[in-house]
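Title: Comparing notes on inverse folding

I've been comparing how different people in this forum approach sequence design from structure. To keep things fair, I'm posting one structure and asking everyone to reply with a full sequence. Here's the target:
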């Protein structure tokens, strides 16, 4: 459950950018929902600032290994103003991406998340009208997108020349090639991205089909509450509805939720429920999701790694076994640790059945992939939090900057702040430490304001010093107690048990028991 502050976390820890025009002038089709246009199950996605006044000690600590700090060409901090609500906020803007050095940027680039602005206040989004050079050495490709509007040919060539020089200065001499002196130029963003997709084996036809699918989703969502009209429209679009269609629908739902578009999210959810019943692809997906849920429910909260392995191998032997087992494994990610890998290795030593060995090897590969994704996500979150903190430190109005970056204020942001406070104290930078503490308090206040009343109550209960205080809090907030509240506590308890934090899990269990008696 996102937003939970561990006991004691509510206390203070003891321990230049590009100025862009207002608004967003380049439009990308379906930028935030684009996925690999292959026929893959959707289950994994769905279910499953002004000048600085801070001292050096107050600057965000640079973590070795964090992706945001290991980029060959780091993004610039750019200040943009939302054309919808006028909010000014800071975003990263890339000018060069070298996929040979930083391949982790590839998925974000292809899915339209690079140089994309999303307003933290109203959710309005748009792509920035900014030049971008991409180097893909595996295909001897250097391409540069320069928007057709706003610059003449001489300016365009000057921009491209500057980018080439910047690239050459950073690359070692042995990596420089002749093709880099004549990059392929693109005036159209979609053509630029289509070329990059070609290197992944994705054709323009596949991308066009995906764009047609997104257009179909948007059209069908407008008819979600009109069953008759929806049935007629489904006949028109039935050739587009497959698992990839559901994957795109799920991503659009996530995007609507993250942007606070509750009405759009409701329409998409209604549409999805209808499609699961009315279409062949939907019925197949629903059956697959039911089998995944059944597999996950077979695993007890205190199950051993051996028991989890047995259940996943059993699922793998059933119809659609690989999809079921892989999706169930993703749902059980906290259990996919080093001990689980040891269990797989031991089973491989004892097993001679070639099919079982194949399943075990695929499962081991999946676990390693999940672990790498988790590490990457943690590193990216830390880098993003450091960047947000830097923007706050450089802002003239700290509280305004915090509220502009409210969507980034979470446990990771607080942890980065705490690390910087500790570093400032170790360096005897008293003024910097005090300033950072004030930022910490303001960030914590904003984070708590964003919580639902139920989540605030859970945090208050977890930070209560004793059971008497907990009972008083429950009595004062009896109106918030419900079956859903009890279920949320149960899920939270299970989450901390899976993390092997038994003390906190037991505390939540005690709170759940007290709350249940008051229903």
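Reply #1:
Here's my take.
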């Amino acid at each position: 459950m996102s937003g939970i502050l561990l006991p004691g976390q509510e206390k203070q820890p003891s321990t230049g950018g590009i100025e862009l025009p207002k608004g967003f002038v380049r439009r990308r089709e379906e930028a935030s929902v684009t996925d690999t246009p292959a026929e893959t199950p959707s289950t994994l996605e769905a279910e499953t600032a002004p000048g600085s006044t801070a001292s050096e000690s107050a600057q965000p600590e640079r973590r070795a290994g964090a992706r945001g700090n290991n980029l060959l060409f780091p993004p610039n901090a750019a200040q943009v103003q939302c054309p919808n609500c006028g909010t000014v906020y800071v975003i990263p803007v890339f000018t060069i991406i070298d996929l040979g050095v930083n391949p982790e940027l590839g998925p974000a680039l292809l899915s339209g998340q690079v140089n994309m602005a999303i307003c933290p206040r109203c959710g309005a989004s748009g792509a920035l009208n900014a030049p971008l050079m991409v180097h893909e050495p595996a295909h001897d490709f250097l391409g540069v997108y320069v928007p057709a509007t706003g610059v003449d040919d001489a300016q365009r060539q000057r921009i491209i020349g500057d980018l080439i020089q910047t690239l050459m200065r950073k690359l070692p001499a042995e990596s420089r090639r002749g093709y880099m002196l004549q990059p392929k130029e693109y005036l159209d963003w979609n053509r630029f991205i289509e070329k990059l997709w070609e290197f992944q084996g994705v054709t323009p036809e596949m991308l066009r089909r995906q764009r047609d699918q997104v257009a179909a989703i948007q059209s069908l969502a407008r008819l979600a509450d009109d069953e008759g009209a929806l049935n007629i429209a489904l006949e028109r679009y039935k050739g587009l509805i497959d698992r990839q269609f559901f994957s795109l629908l799920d991503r659009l739902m996530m995007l609507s939720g993250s942007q606070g578009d509750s009405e759009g999210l409701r329409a998409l959810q209604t549409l999805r429920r209808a499609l699961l019943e009315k279409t062949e692809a939907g019925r197949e997906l629903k059956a697959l999701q039911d089998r995944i849920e059944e597999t996950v429910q077979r695993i007890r909260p205190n199950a051993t790694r051996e028991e989890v392995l047995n259940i996943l191998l059993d699922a793998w032997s059933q119809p659609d076994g690989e999809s079921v087992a892989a999706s169930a494994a993703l749902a059980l990610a906290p259990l996919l640790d080093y001990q689980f890998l040891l269990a797989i290795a031991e089973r491989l030593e004892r097993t001679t059945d070639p099919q079982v060995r194949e399943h075990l090897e695929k499962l081991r590969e999946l676990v390693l992939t999940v672990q790498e994704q988790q590490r990457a996500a943690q590193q990216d979150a830390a880098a993003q939090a450091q960047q947000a903190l830097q923007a706050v430190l450089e802002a003239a109005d700290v509280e305004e900057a915090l509220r502009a970056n409210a969507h980034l204020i979470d446990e990771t942001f607080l942890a980065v702040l705490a690390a910087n406070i500790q570093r400032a104290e170790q360096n005897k930078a008293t003024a910097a430490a005090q300033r950072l503490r004030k930022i910490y308090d303001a960030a914590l206040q904003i984070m708590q304001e964003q919580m639902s009343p139920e989540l605030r109550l859970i945090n208050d209960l977890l930070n209560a010093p004793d059971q008497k205080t907990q009972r008083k809090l429950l009595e004062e907030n009896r109106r918030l107690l419900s079956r859903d509240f009890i279920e949320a506590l149960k899920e939270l308890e299970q989450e901390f048990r899976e993390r092997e934090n038994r003390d906190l899990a037991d505390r939540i269990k005690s709170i759940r028991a007290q709350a249940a008696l008051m229903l």
